[in-house]
Amino acid sequence: MPNAYVLKGGYVYDPLNGIDGEKMDVAIADGKIVDTAPKGAKVIDVSGKVVMPGGVCIHSHIAGGKVNSGRRLRPEDHRKDVVPKRGQLRSGVGYTVPSTFITGYRFAAMGYTTVFEPAVPPLKARHTHEEFQDTPILDNGGFVLTGNNWFVLNYIRNNEMDKLAAYIAWLLWATKCYAVKIVNPGGVESWGWGKNVNGLDDKVPYFDVSPREIVTALAQVNEKLGLPHTIHVHGNNLGHPGNYEITLETMEAVREVKPAKGRRNVIHFTHVQFNAYAGTSWKDFASGGKEIAEYINKHDHVTVDIGQVIFGDATTMTADGPWEFTLHQITGGNKWVNSDVELETGSGIVPYVFRRTIPVNAVQWAIGLEIMLSVNDLYKVCLTTDHPNGGPFYFYPKIISWLVSRKARNEMLEKTHKAAAERTTLKDLDREFSLYDVAIVTRATQAKILGLKNRGHLGPGAKGDVAVYDLDPTKVDISSNPDLVEKAFSAALYTFKDGEIVVKDGEVIAAPQGSTIWVKVKSLEEMMPLIEEDLKEMWKHYTVSLSNYPVQMEYLPKSEMIEVGA
Amino acid sequence: MSRIEITPLEKPRVPVEAEVISPDVFAGKSLEEIGNLEVWRGNRKKKLKELFKISGDVGGKPSEVTIIINGDASFAKRIGQNMTAGEIVIKGNVGMHVGAGMMGGKIVVEGNADHWAGAEMKAGVLHIKGNAGNYLGGNYRGGVGMSELQKGVYGTIIVEGNAGNEVGAWMSGGKIIVKGDVGAFAGVHMSGGSIVVHGNVAERAGGEMKGGSIIAMGRLSELLPSFEYKGEAGEVEVYGEKIPGPFLTFTGDLAENGKGMIYLLKEKNTHIRTF
User: Fold this and answer.
1) Between chain A and chain B, how many beta carbons pairs sit less than 8 Å apart?
2) What single DSSP character describes residue A513?
3) Which positions in chain B have a beta carbon within 8 angstroms of at least one beta carbon in chain A?
4) How many domains does chain A have?
5) ipTM field
6) CA–CA gap between residue A102 and residue A92 (Å, rounded)
7) Cα of B68 to nearest chain A Cα, Å
């Protein structure tokens, strides 16, 4: 019988089902995990290997307008990482901003099967979906940018929360996106006026609303609509010394928001490393990671991903236009892109190199790990690099090696500017992750925070997305062998996608189309009369007509629609 | 010392990617091993011995290896790419990218060199006795043109004939000497190093330059308006070598930071405004 496999005798790490390295079989049939395999299932001996659910990444910029602009900006970056065509697989390039096909292959080779693009300008949604189609293997989805959108700002100014809810529901449908993203709330719109917002209560020109009001209103609407993911926030003052305070203020601002049914969290603060800085200038730049971690430990309404920095080349790309302008200046006029997306958002791109010898970079590197190692409940924190902002995603295995081994961290600390040891608490942290912990922060937490029911675990009915790594936890002491851990997680022995083998011995052998996951609010049709007139009225300012705006289903060859209540 | 002669057996219509023709690759290999090195001809892999007759004495270290190419190698690209030591003599024309990214050693081209000769080179000498194409000592998209390998260690390109457009594009160090004329956009975006042209220089020299110098001993057809006259200079010094003038000196490009220099030999450039 085709489409059925039994992975026999592996050490299974499935945190959402409480399975911690138990030696057991995993059966897959017809693309799903099953209790018992049907007769004739192909048996694969994975004894002495690690078996985990397919990896899930909550935040990697892999598709869409700004990613493609980043590719066009960096020919010198591609030249050092050229991938030839191999069999059925397409040619392409890395390095920091890989081509779509290489993105799919490299994530899959690490055992990842689901990746979310976290910044979709509504007008560029069609472009994003086109790139999703060309990013093989991975299931995907986009977070739609809302924090500087004129409709949103208007409704908040006029305190029209029902209309705001209707608009968000419509926008998710129109863009076929999965979650609500907020980038530098109010700041990007202010940037259109040559300004920024620096405090949570600064007002956006003309609209006269504050970042606090934007974040709170969108959190309320998000929870009221019962969206599977919370608001996904890139904070104000990102990248600036001393910004950990506004990070905490932002988290505190939504503390009283009533969460949707079945969860306690109401905000996901993304790539928190970039928003966890103490100090008053680049000279006394230090870590605010401890304060952030303490807050997270005391409160259940916040989740984060770290946005770990990797030394070497990065391409910073974000909807945060004003920050990219600052970065362009900091880098001494490095080449850059800055753009304005009509009524919706902006964006910027600047190539950047993180250097071990530079104190600020050294501290940034340490903060990501510091936060991850200081948060008690790992169901609140995800491993990311904010690819390609902190560094390329293919360094996840390297980060895992730092998390499981204090020895590996100390070796890096020795090679890194002393500021990393002096201005963070990293050198004092003796916590070392187990493989169970690794599975939590690379799969379980990400799927749980995203509200994905059928991913990130290996219970019956879950998708047949499984990763097998060549590592025997009974023979290898991971803490003293970080290199072996890195090697194992870099090249999965097997990656199964929808119950089919897509990676074997670290090599991609099949590249099927992934699904695009998006959210439809059930009551959208009932809510539409609230905003129909407003859409028509505001659309005078758009360069595209309203009827051409929504992304058609033709752009989602494999659609996975999640209907939510409200 | 080792001297390896390679002679083209034919003149393929499809270019050959011949970056393996380099002292760094040949060093320590037997003639047989050298013959079995792989090159791409179009989309087909070929062995070096299928394209060249190979003879001579092999050597152990790159610095001891001299490679002589007997005949026209204009079909072969990337000869001497990234080489660090030794010598290559091409007794004819050569294809694109010769000596690109060189970090040492010497290449002599007795005929003409195609585009991107010495592109992004960091040290060593590239001597072209004929003409050179576009982007001589220039950059690949997004990269830096000729630059210094380390402080005080730089490359030199000498062209006896003419060179094409965008000579020294984005260069940040090193020296390009062209005995003949150069095309448009010489030194575009350059931030360091020097371009010395004994012949004439076409329009838009030094566009968006931020540093370094362009020295024209011949006539500059037209100076960009974003350069400022700074008076006359009796002589100019290029990496310790003095070139007698007198010169008209200009700084620019003021569209950038205006810290680049253009020196024009006074007697040939009376048509250039000096106010």
Assistant:
1) 14
2) P
3) 140-143
4) 1
5) 0.82
6) 6
7) 30
One digit per residue, pLDDT tens: chain A, 566 residues?
A: 468 999 999 999 999 999 999 999 999 999 999 999 999 999 999 999 999 999 999 999 999 999 999 999 999 999 999 999 999 999 999 999 999 999 999 999 999 999 999 999 999 999 999 999 999 999 999 999 999 999 999 999 999 999 999 999 999 999 999 999 999 999 999 999 999 999 999 999 999 999 999 999 999 999 999 999 999 999 999 999 999 999 999 999 999 999 999 999 999 999 999 999 999 999 999 999 999 999 999 999 999 999 999 999 999 999 999 999 999 999 988 999 999 999 999 999 999 999 999 999 999 999 999 999 999 999 999 999 999 999 999 999 999 999 999 999 999 999 999 999 999 999 999 999 999 999 999 999 999 999 999 999 999 999 999 999 999 999 999 999 999 999 999 999 999 999 999 999 999 999 999 999 999 999 999 999 999 999 999 999 999 999 999 999 999 999 999 999 85
Rounded distance, CA A349 to CA A329, Å?
Answer: 12
Which residues, other chains included, contact A289 with Cβ-Cβ below 8 Å and sequence gap of 6+?
Answer: A244, A273, A276, A366, A367, A370, A371, A374, A424, A425
Optimal mutation site among B19, B78, B120, B141, interface A, most CBs of chain A within 10 A: B141
Q: Which residues in chain A are closer than 8 Å to B142, comparing Cβ atoms? A: 73-77, 79
What are the chain B neighbours of A75 within 8 Å (beta carbons)?
140-143
- Report the predicted TM-score, pTM, of the whole model to 2 decimal places: 0.92
In angstroms, the CA A142 to CA A173 distance is: 12
Which chain A residue is nearest to residue B139, measuring alpha carbons? A76
Largest Cα–Cα separation, chain A:
68
Quick check: is A493 in a domain?
no
State whether residue A76 sits within 8 Å of chain B by CB. Answer: yes
How distant is the Cα of A74 from the closest Cα of chain B, in angstroms?
6
Q: How far, in Å, CA of A141 to CA of A153, rounded?
A: 25
Q: With respect to residue A14, please indicate whether it lies within any of the assigned structural domains.
A: no
**Residue A308 belongs to a domain:** yes
DSSP output for A313-337: EEEEEES-HHHHHHHHHHTTS---E
- The Cα of B144 is separated from the nearest Cα of chain A by a number of Å equal to 9
In angstroms, what separates the C-alpha of A79 from chain B's closest C-alpha?
9
Q: Is the Cβ pair A74, B142 closer than 8 Å?
A: yes
Taking CB atoms and an 8 Å cutoff, what residues of chain A touch B141?
75-76
Give B268 to chain A, closest Cα distance, Å: 37
Q: What is the CATH number of the domain that holds A113?
A: 3.20.20.140
A236 Cβ neighbours under 8 A, 6+ residues apart: A184, A185, A186, A187, A197, A198, A199, A200, A211, A243, A246, A250
Contact list, A73 vs chain B (CB under 8 Å)? 142
Chain A CA closest to residue B142: A76
Specify if A371 maps to a domain: yes
Domain that holds residue A407: 55-450
Which residues make Cβ contacts (< 8 Å) with residue A2, sequence separation at least 6? Answer: none
Q: Give CA–CA dist A549/A295, Å, rounded.
A: 41
